[in-house]
Amino acid sequence: MNLAAAQRRSGDHLIVFMHGIGCAKESYAEAFDAAELKDFSLCAFDFPGHGESPSLRANSVEAYADASVELIESMGPGGSPWWRTAWVGRLGCWSRRKSTWRGL
After folding, report:
1. CB–CB of 28/44 below 8 Å?
2. At 18, is the secondary structure helix, strand, or coil?
3. E strands along 9-103, which residues?
4. What is the mean pLDDT of the chain?
5. I need a surface site. Which of 31, 72, 75, 76 has the fewest CB within 10 A?
6. Digit-coded pLDDT (tens) for 27-64
7. CA neighbor of 13 nearest in space, from 44, 43, 46
8. Domains and CATH numbers, the chain
9. What is the pTM of this model?
10. Range list of H helices, 1-104
């Protein structure tokens, strides 16, 4: 699945921003200009069916996680991604799939 995303590769560490309901990848636009994050690779994306991303046939937390993992892994090596989400409780499956991923 091709999720709509804003991406910047500029460091060995990747920070992933995941929006909550009613928001989109643009919610994190200021992060891409923040001097404090200049040495980090960044990824902000629209979940399936939100913003500019196409919908899934079956909507579930697992399907959202699969689509998100696919996008993040496409950014290549970069150690353990750090992620920030408004869906911390709903996306607990991320920690099961990628035990080295860390939340902010």
Report:
1. yes
2. strand
3. 14-18, 41-45, 82-85, 102-103
4. 76
5. 76
6. 899 999 999 999 988 989 988 888 888 888 887 877 88
7. 43
8. 5-103 (3.40.50.1820)
9. 0.73
10. 61-74, 93-97
